[in-house]
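Supplementary Methods, section 5.1.

A reviewer requested that the exact input to the structure prediction be made available. We therefore reproduce it here, unchanged from the version used in the analyses.
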Amino acid sequence: MRQEDLDMLRAMPVAAPAMMINGKSVMAETGATLDVVSPIDGALLTQIPNASEADVTIAVTSARHSFDSGVWSRTHPMVRKKVMLAWADLIEKHAIELAVLGVRDNGTEISMAFKAEPMSAANTIRYYAEAIDKIYGEVAPTDPSTLAMILKEPIGVVGAIVPWNFPLMISAWKIAPAIAMGNSFVIKPSEVASLSVLRMVALAHEAGLPEGVLNVVTGAGPVSGHALAMSMDVDALAFTGSGPVGRQLMEAAAKSNLKRVFLELGGKSPHIVFDDTADLDTAAEAVVTGIFRNSGQVCVAGSRLLVHDTIHDAFVEKIVGLTEKLRVGDPLDLSTQIGALSSEGHMHRIQKTLEGANSVVSGGIQILSETGGFYMAPTIVTDIDVDDRLFSEEVFGPVLTVSQFTDEIDAISQANASELGLASGVWTSNLGRAHRMVASLHTGVVHVNTYGGADNTVPLGGYKQSGNCHDKSLHAIEKFINKKTAWIKV
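The structure derived from this sequence is encoded token-by-token as follows.
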């Protein structure tokens, strides 16, 4: 990546994109649109179609027709693999274009966006493409007079609603395993960040995906997202986002066709540092990166720092020093380490969350307002008790709370004192303690002496109110298949 290439792409106007329904570019039937405001400078970037319930119905009907026709669901697995691999290649070919488009839309620093968005999406699609001809049914050990087979079949039409923080990466987590198994798909990206998803879906059709297999609708969540959740012809719905919206989607499923609803609902992840940590400097760097990358707008962000009381003051001094050296600014500048918040409204919500916080030792304020963009200084708040609102409330921004603990039992108690349980981190040189912490923490992911590392071979999912499903790995495929028993008298 060269700065001059980024500057050239930044300067290019963004034509008003269309939705993709039944393989064709279409606007909303009513002609309604939503403004796309870039968080980089607060300027109007373009407009996207604002889909109605009727538009969603057309998209779902298109997906159903493609599924029932067998044009994808009953085609040879090697054909599906070939198309998906070609799609991944096209995403990689257009990676810089896709990354810049996404950054202009949601403000993620380009150094992170390039790897976490198009490159991650391409790798995810390849992973599931390669799995297509390696997923087998079973023959049960029955009496010899009976042949009992367990068949794995695509579920049908899958809907997905994805957030704005990593639209390509999270879309690929949903789309790739579903279409690999032969399902048809309707995706609704966030109205705050739809541009890169629209472009990625267009590339899927360029790669040879049949019409109607992958459809994308854009617009306001309460309208198009609700319509997708209420559809009687959507067999499963996958969602990444907030808990309140997740509850609404489950209610909609109950009121409609009892579709399966798979939720990933964020977290308030504890990052625990014991006094026997071998390298506190490395731990401090991981803590700072674990909360402030993408301005803290990461579901697994280590937003709750728990530090052993004997090292608390010295460790806080380390992380404050590192935090205040971070370069916050234009996310399309290669030297920037922390980009913009996704929207002005989100920035104001974070500021409101910080009202009344007494021990802000770093940050806590809007910065770079002269740019017209939406930027906040990375924020550290100390002396947080388990009863404080900031201890349990997901901020989803560049805010790190710091609490002290006295021993292992106290650390576990504080770490688990949350309704959310997506991720956690532990720093210790004691192997026995590391194993005890992994067993005791009520989170779907536990990092030990690192933070944030993972790939497509392992699942991502939460405990408690962080969700009820897993993205990534072969386990994700289970969401998108039906198991059918064939009981045959021989």
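The longest strand covers residues 146-154. These observations are discussed further in the main text.
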